[in-house]
Amino acid sequence: MNRFFIGWISFLLVVGIQTGALAEGPVKIGVVDVKEFQEKSIAFQKIRNELQGKFQSLQKKLEDEKNALLKLEEDYRKQSMMLSLDAKGDKRSELEKKRRYYKYLYEDLSEQMKDAERDATRRILKELEGVVQKIADDEGYMLILERSTPGLVFVDSTLNITDQVTKAYDRTHQQQQ
User: Fold this and answer.
1) Averaged pLDDT score across all residues of the chain
2) Residues 6+ positions from 145 with CB-CB distance below 8 Å
3) In whole angstroms, how large is the CA radius of gyration of the chain?
4) Alpha carbon distance 168, 177 (integer Å)
5) Local confidence band at 17 (pLDDT 50, 70, 90 cut-offs)
6) pLDDT for the residue numbered 154
7) Closest Cα partner for 6 from 154, 148, 150, 153?
8) Tell me: the pLDDT tens digits for 145-162?
9) pTM of whole model > 0.90?
10) DSSP letter at 25?
11) 15: how many CB neighbours lie within 10 A of its CB?
12) What are the strands, taking DSSP E only, across 33-177?
């Protein structure tokens, strides 16, 4: 129901823009496919690779900690029969402490990754919005939609400006470096 409502509002906006703009001349509409942008943009791929590198380093740190915990558990099982009650208690305490630390580390690293992804996504979308705005201003677009907009069922390929946006975004990143 909500998607239907949003689709109708989008349709009415387009129709309203067209009728108001008919006096001014032809209405120029464009569509950007963000998934296609993500696949084709060199700058986006670089950011994605940086995030994956960070993720892999955090994953390695977590894996090392997990291996240390498994080794400690194995040592405890092997030595359990030979240890005194006090030594057993100390080993069990050390093992529980290590398990808590591993759980804490897992949650902390997961949160760090979510934060890094969220920050990168926010930054990319803001930059992409600026690129799209510049293209709209320079070329006189009245409306530029995202391909996955609810209610947008069909788009003629002539309206697709994803390649143009991708090239402009990549140029912007090359100039920043």
Assistant:
1) 85
2) 10, 29, 30, 31, 32, 152, 155
3) 27
4) 15
5) low
6) 86
7) 150
8) 898 888 888 888 899 999
9) no
10) S
11) 10
12) 143-146
